[in-house]
Design goal:
about 575 residues, four-stranded antiparallel beta sheet, alpha/beta, globular, seven-stranded mixed beta sheet
């Protein structure tokens, strides 16, 4: 073995290796895999994408492809070789794949072509677990194993089919196909084993655990359901605040959990719906103290990222968040356990910390309460399946409230209960974006981001790039000036296709930088950055550039397409 870094080797030999890879036709290299490719457009991850040959080939079938390549020079050459491709490139590496995990994406197929031999044998179990977690149920993990001499300078290690079969079995997957093949570069001492591994289920146990907590676990109150629904809402809309916390967990700000918890309970308590068999409205709930009652005139819709509170309202909200964090830690987080008795959601609370004179609901402030840890497999399940998980939680929560009311001699209207439980986003508010559009229009600097047409007061619409009906988001980055005809007759409530979004990149970035300029003391720019960082999970920089936000937005588009099946807007007439 060697301590050399394979990434350095590929950086040094990028030109030579890239030319070599591009000399081989992908249809020949992956003929064994072609009939396993889905006929419809799916999400594919190419890990160690090299020259981009395979990623571009897969994208040519209409698939949405994310290519991971840790060598900066290889990645740069690949983007030059395949400049017209729709492939999304990430600088990431095994075994962590931090950027891929941050995206929240799941994949129907993952390809590791000539990659496995670069992974240290001691890291292969961890690597396989990471990959299988990213795979959708029914998905395929395609790995090619290199048989041939070890090459110390390239960090090439021996591989074993037996090892791969054991890893598959240990993670609930199975070998669907195994084919031996000659080396396509003509090397006599090198051959390959091409392996397709199928995942029949999510392989993590997350969904059975969620079903158990939702439907079977003992509940003397609605707290457990409230915590799971809180995590669902965070996974769906504020995943940018989730970060790695070791091998098994992701960490989210405890204050964010408390904030969404309060937001869920506020309308229910205002309506007097019982949350336990002895509870009537506000009574007997640990987090409902004087501070909570002082927020009676604060709408739950105002409890969202980016909002600011000062004075008495700020004091009351700060104390309410502390009370909610304590209740969550002592009750549902403590009592939700694995079958073996271990705690599912460990919490690290921060003791005494000063209350700021002005509260801004952002990551720094919300993290000041502590950190809430979620098992990685459970977090992935919430991101992938929240569209199915949350309705089950809502239904069981409603059933419990009606059961508690019945025991108290009351009858609740089922429709009223369900309407009160709707996760309400603020009504569509495009005022700020429209004000900035009018300012730019007066300077003759406003154009439709989709068509490039000049905009006037007679033809301007402010469009939600990702349609409100599918993903209610009034963040500034999601609001675009558009020509009314394009918006109402062509795009409508559809998701822009990858091709259309990439074609509009320059106009979108110009709009952002003109409407929310990065100047000293700009409140609008700060809000723009805060919102993007919260809702676009692949942003890792504290002060991201416009190009970073656009790249993260494109990955979010891909997630909405595949996880929520939002119809696409494909043709720009």
């Amino acid at each position: 073995m060697t301590s050399k870094d394979p990434i350095q080797w590929y950086d040094l030999h990028a030109e030579e290796v890239s030319t070599q890879y591009e000399s081989v036709v992908p249809e020949q290299v992956h003929a064994w895999l072609k009939d396993l490719l889905p006929s419809k457009s799916v999400a594919i991850l190419d890990v160690g994408a090299g020259s981009g040959r395979d990623a571009s080939w897969l994208a040519g079938f209409g698939h949405d492809v994310v290519a991971v390549e840790p060598s900066e020079k290889m990645r740069s050459l690949a983007q030059q070789h395949h400049a017209g491709s729709s492939v999304k490139w990430l600088s990431d590496s095994l075994p962590d794949l931090k950027q891929v995990f941050a995206s929240g994406l799941s994949f129907d197929m993952i390809l590791l072509s000539a990659v496995w031999m670069h992974i240290l044998p001691s890291q292969r179990t961890r690597t396989f677990r990471k990959l299988i977690t990213l795979l959708k149920p029914g998905g395929v993990l395609a790995i090619t194993l290199r048989n041939g001499p070890a090459e110390e300078e390239r960090c090439i290690y021996p591989v074993s089919m037996d090892e791969l079969e054991q890893l598959a079995r240990n993670h609930g997957a199975y070998i669907e196909r195994r084919i031996e093949d000659k080396d396509k570069l003509g090397r006599e001492d090198v051959s390959w084993i091409q392996v397709a591994i199928r995942l029949p289920d999510d392989g993590t146990g997350a969904l059975p655990l969620l079903r158990h907590i939702t439907l079977n676990d003992d509940k003397s109150s609605t707290y457990k359901l409230a915590l799971l629904r809180t995590l669902c809402r965070i996974a769906d809309g504020t995943a940018g605040y989730a970060h790695d916390a070791g091998e098994e967990h992701v960490s989210i700000p405890l204050g964010l959990v408390a904030l969404y918890w309060i937001r869920l309970f506020k309308p229910l308590l205002g309506a007097g719906f019982p949350q336990s068999s002895i509870n009537r409205g506000y009574s007997k709930l640990g987090f409902v103290k004087d501070a909570f009652r002082k927020l009676d005139h604060v709408s739950h819709l105002d409890l969202r990222i980016g909002m600011q509170f000062t004075g008495e309202r700020g004091d009351a909200l700060h104390q309410t968040l502390k009370d909610a964090a304590e209740t969550i830690t002592r009750m549902p987080a403590h009592y939700i356990t694995f079958p073996n008795g271990g705690q599912v959601f460990p919490v690290n609370r921060i003791g005494r910390f000063p209350k700021p004179s002005s509260i801004r609901l952002d990551e720094v402030y919300l993290t000041s309460f502590g950190q809430f840890h979620v098992p990685r497999n459970l977090w992935r399940a919430l991101q992938r399946f929240d569209v199915w998980i949350e309705p089950a939680l809502v239904a069981e929560w409603a059933r419990l409230m009606m059961f508690y009311a019945e025991r108290q001699g009351r009858t609740l209207n089922n429709l009223e209960v369900l309407n009160t439980m709707v996760w309400s986003e603020p009504t569509r508010d495009v005022k700020i974006a429209r004000e900035q559009a009018i300012r730019l229009m007066a300077e003759d600097k406003l154009f439709c981001v989709w068509s490039g047409k000049r905009l006037t007061e007679k033809n301007i619409d402010v469009d939600h790039c990702f349609p409100w009906a599918a993903w209610p988001c009034d963040d500034l980055w999601n609001l675009m000036p558009t020509h009314r005809t394009v918006n109402q007759k062509e795009k409508r409530a559809k998701l822009p296709s990858d091709q259309i979004l990439r074609g509009a990149q320059d106009r979108i970035i110009t709009w952002w930088e003109s409407a929310y300029p990065n100047v000293s003391g700009s409140i609008l720019h700060d809000r723009f950055i805060t919102e993007a960082s919260a809702s676009l999970p692949t942003i890792v920089e504290s002060r991201p550039q416009s190009e970073d936000i656009f790249a993260a937005m494109n990955l979010q588009r891909m997630r909405l397409k595949h996880d929520q099946q939002i119809p696409e807007w494909i043709d720009l007439r």
